[in-house]
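W.,

You were right to be curious about this one. When I first looked at the sequence I had no strong expectations either way, so I just let the prediction run and decided to look at it fresh. Below is the sequence, 263 residues in total, followed by the output.
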Amino acid sequence: MTIDYKGKKLFYRIKGKGPAVVFLHGFTGSCVIWNDYLEELSTTHLVVAIDLPGHGQSESLSNNHSIEDMGNAVKTILDHLEITQTVIVGHSMGGYVALAIAQSFPDLIKGLGLFHSTARSDSPEAKELRERAIRLIYSNHKDFLFEFIPGLFAPENRSGCAVEISNLIEMAKGMTSDAIIAAQRGMMERKDFTTLLANAPFPVMFIAGHKDQRIPFESILQQIAIVPQAHSLTLRNCGHMGFIEANETCLTFTKNFVEACYR
C-alpha cells in the first residue's frame, strides 16, 4: 500500500485485525525484515510494517531525513489508517523514529520497542564515524554497504548468516547514495531521548546483543535501569541483528511484549 507525504510516496504493508502494532526497520533496511513478525502477530493484531523515507519502496523526502520528519511520515500513515493507539517497535534507526513519535504523540503509544536501538544521541566519536561513512558513500556507496552490513552481525554468526547478509546488501543496493546519506545525517543530528525513557508511562522493550558493534551493550543496560516498566532480552551470541541471528527467540519475546502492552 502507498500514501502521499509531502508529495512523495510512502510504502507500507498491513495485515490482520485487532490492537495495532507498528514495525519500523533500521538504516538500509525495509519493511521486508519484519515479514515473520507480520505473519505471526497478524493472527491476533493489526500489524503495519513501514518503509521509512528513502528506504525500500518509499521515496526520499530531502537530502536530510531528520528523525522527526521520519516520525511525522509514520504518523501520517497511522492517521490515514485511523490508528489512535499502537505499540511501536523499531530496529536501530527505526527505534530512534519510534522515540521521536513517542515524544511528539505520547497518547498514541501503548508500548515502545527498542530493537538494538538506543535513546542516546550520537557521541562526538559516533558523529565522526558517520562523517567518514558519508565520505565513503559519496565515493562508492556499494563499497560502503559491503563493509557496513556484515559488521552488523556477531563475527561468529557471519558465515551462518551469509545468505541473509547477501540479501540485505542486495536490498540496500536499491537505495540511492543520496538516500543513504540523508539517513546518516538524520541519525547524526538526532536528539537525546533518555529523559523520555526515564519518564515513560508505557512499557518499553529492549532487545540487546552482547556483541553489538553499533550500540555498546553497557549503555543499553544503563537505559534499562532507568525505565519504570522495562522488558529486556539480552542475547549473548548476537550482534545488531537479533531478528536474524536469534529470530525465534526475538519473535517470541516481541509477541509476549505486545500482548502485555494490551492487557
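Here's what jumped out at me. The domain at 2-261 is CATH 3.40.50.1820 (Rossmann fold). And, maybe more interesting for your project: The mean pLDDT is 98.

Coffee later to discuss?

I.
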